[in-house]
Amino acid sequence: RVLESRDLAMTPHITRPIDDEATPGERDFLLSGAYNLGFLGIAFNERTLPFLEWWHRRLMRECLHAVDRGLFVDQRWMDLAPSLLERVALLREPGWNVAYWNLVHRRLEKRQDGWWVEGTPLRFFHFSGYQFERPRQISRFQDRLTLEGRPDVAPLFADYRARLFTAGHADLQRHPYAYGAFDNGEEVTPQLRYLLLEVDPRAVRWADPFATTGSDTFYGWLQCSDDAGETVFLPRAAVALWEARGDLRQAFPSLHGASREGFANWLLLSSAEHGLSEEVLGRVRESVRPHPGTLEWRLETMLARVSKSLTDQGFVTCDGLQPADLRALAEEADLDNRQRPILPLLALILHLTRADLRRSFPDPLGGDRSRFAAWFVTFGWYEHALPWALVRPVLSTLGAFRALRALAWMARAALRSGFRRRTARAIRWALEPAASTEPGRRVSGRAPEESAPYGVNVIGWTTAPTGVGEACRNSLVALGEAGVPHAVWSLGSHAFDECKSMARGGSGRQGAPYEVDLLHVNADMMPFVTARLPAWITASRHRIGYWFWELSYFPLSYAPSFAHVDEVWAPTRFCLDAFLPLSPVPVRWMRPAVPPREAAPRSLAEWGVPDGPFVFFFAFDARSVPERKNPRGLIAAFARATARSARPLHLLLKVNHGEESPDLLALLREDARGLPVTMLDATLTRQLIDGMLASCDAFVSLHRSEGLGLPIIEAMQLGRPVIATGYGGCCDFLDDSVGWVVDHTLVPLREAQGPYPQGAVWAEPDLEHAAELMRQVAADAEARRHKAEAARRRVHELYAPAVAGARMRRELDRILAARTAGDARKATEEPPEPGFDEPVGARGRDRRLPAPP
Hints:
By secondary structure, the chain is α/β, with parallel strands linked by helices. It has 32 helices and 24 strands. Strands 12-11-13-14-15-16 form a six-stranded parallel β-sheet. It has a six-stranded parallel β-sheet with strand order 19-18-17-20-21-22, sandwiched between helices. A hairpin with a 4-residue loop joins strand 3 (65-66) and strand 4. Mean pLDDT is 82; it is low at 304-317, 418-450, 495-507 and 830-853.
């Protein structure tokens, strides 16, 4: 009856405050949700159908137990229901949904006509967390109440348990969880589930993630090496575990060098904590075969000598050891036998096999040596039933005070236990004897790469209102035009977003299921981004850096960024020439996609531009380096053109983010004083700016350098005549047949400008020549029409998304063919000339090169 007048009915977890410190408390409900979704009533009408569709979309990707991210499976989302639906009934009557979370406020009573709660009928009881094998426990999810302390509910639980028994629950609960293992029986751990969610959340690559047979499976992908360049083999499943556990990242800060080998040894000694198959562990073990004389080598050879009495269903104790075994375990762990107190090899084995010991004594052979030795002769002796022959050498070198305290503790423990030794787990059998005794032999742990699906992962700031973000979005359009399967890994809206948290699980994140990564991340940000991306993205894949740069000199400080990629795509020949002198990886000229701009002209009067004059337009971002865009040079050239032109001229100057550079705005206004210049610094939408450009008569850019010249391309797409400096990336498409090219000279930077170092060179446009070209453009309507049409055709032929997508597809074919053939060299060899466009224009009119600074 409630749903006859309401759209949705829910029960709150609690209806009164909880003032004790037991679990669950009020903060638990803030994390898991205000309403319990063990019960939910929904009407079927025109209001609830859109609501259910919204809920469905959220649960498809974010039905997660991740309270640190504000998610608790399907339940947490329902906190928004009263805001999204007007007619929501919150059933507060105490008989609804009685359970461990509200029993603290509700008393049950058994009457002849049934169960009652606080004077109202019991509608239903929720036995959440009840365990059949623990009949005295109300729920495993709480510690507030017991059945002994609540005799009012004990009969209800007894009846429930009897019904479960009659229904055969004892037999049914023995059935394994159907989705808890791969089809070969190996466990699917929580870390692997989260990894699948990040890699392939939309099942693009693996329709059946539980399959273990076939040409390409999630299971097989997990078993492959995380990095082909490393000697020590680590499967991707192990990398996922390392990333998920803070204690492992603290103990092994890196997956390279000695830290990598240490992590591999931990995997071998801690199989119960990760569940890797013995086949995979065998490949790890083979790749970390220790060198003779090292501590690891002594551990392995000692274990190889210890008799098989150590093994008993995968565990060992010290009770049945032979004398030779005891002598081997008692050998000093430290190669420098002058260190005190001494520690036997057994102590180190225990340290490696127990996570609690690693947390308590992170440096057992150094700063924590004495504390660890004291633990070994007390708790270690007691917990692992250690023979006196192993304890006595440590005790004798512990120091008088610590030794006396240890002996007193041992005496009390022996008295309490009636002199009976506890038989406990001592050593996990993880380091099997080596199949080969060849000293110091190392093998590569990389497994043959399985066939990979065709596609590319695009990683970048897909929502950022910047040039880098625009380039990334344009590449996505091009890949779509070419029919190339792709996934998006969005880095957020700002350059310094934390890459692991931004857009996590959001609509902008589609995983990264393919074996080729296209990183729309410029060289200066590569170390920052790759350090924060998951390791499975930054290793064992073909990584392409699509870098933009504005000068002919590529700074030496950016050279380390090449280590994060397998090849670099340069958007222009200008960038290509800048990257090549420093690059140890192949660099390819890859023209970007620039989707065609379309905008209807608007009346310029709304921005204060008078009718009649010939209007030039230029826009730039004050956040960029204004000196490179050279707006003051433009105003100076425009002043000269105005004085010589027979036709009235006007300049519309749009400054983005001008409020962040008030000094610059003041200089520009002073330069434009008395000139027909309209300067706008208000924030406008892209659609308005395009309409502004389409309304002007010509576009002019007296830049000192451009990596690509995107504003010039967009002006050409809109059919606007273009005047621009003949230097930089724009020379790929700009020459005298499609525009008006301004002469320039090259000059050194006398001081650093933003990321551009002192001593680098850029262009200094000839302002006299620019003024003359402005006058010519305003006077010659036929030339404007002819060149504007030619420019529109050219940029379409070079930068249309379908054309750019075809170029990307060709490169992807090359890379994947080489990976499938197992030849990494072919994936990075230099491209053939056919199919790669040469520059259409001259490189500008360089009058002279500057003297060395």
